[in-house]
């Protein structure tokens, strides 16, 4: 199996496992990724998220609308009247405090057979591949 087929299959299995962990909370992997980004970065714009995740802004906007409807995030005015900042609500913080340890354990379990050096090597290799694909 070539490396790109392996990456594709790995991604599918990872997303499948992530979906199983998130579904009891009514979240999708895309929802969780956006919420986690807000936890890590504080208030941000949809454009910042789209740029970071290499996705189109309408894709982010659909996710944002869903999370606003669930009461997990809200918008606040930005510096520019057209720009809205996204922030977690109290409900969003509480949910992430509950979900994050479950996802961290899931991810740690997936990497449990790797030594620290192997994880670092894998991280560097995937980062190098990602950077090469951006060009």
TrEMBL record:
GO terms for molecular function: DNA binding. Transmembrane segments: none annotated. It comes from Metabacillus niabensis. InterPro entries: HTH_MarR-typ, WH-like_DNA-bd_sf, WH_DNA-bd_sf. Gene3D superfamilies: Winged helix-like DNA-binding domain superfamily/Winged helix DNA-binding domain. It holds the Pfam family MarR_2. Residues 1-131 form the HTH marR-type domain. Keywords: DNA-binding, Transcription, Transcription regulation. Signal peptide: none annotated. This is DNA-binding MarR family transcriptional regulator.
């Amino acid at each position: 199996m070539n490396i790109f087929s392996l990456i594709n299959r790995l991604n599918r299995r990872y997303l499948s496992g992530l979906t199983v962990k998130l579904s009891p909370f009514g979240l999708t992997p895309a929802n969780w990724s956006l919420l986690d980004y807000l936890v890590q970065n504080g208030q941000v714009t949809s454009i910042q998220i789209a740029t970071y995740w290499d996705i189109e802004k309408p894709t982010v906007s659909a996710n944002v609308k869903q999370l606003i409807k669930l009461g997990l995030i809200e918008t606040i005015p930005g510096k520019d009247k057209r720009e809205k900042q996204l922030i977690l609500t109290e409900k969003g913080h509480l949910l992430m405090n509950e979900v994050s340890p479950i996802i961290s354990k899931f991810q740690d379990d997936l990497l449990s057979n790797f030594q620290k050096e192997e994880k670092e090597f894998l991280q560097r290799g995937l980062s190098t591949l990602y950077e090469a694909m951006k060009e």
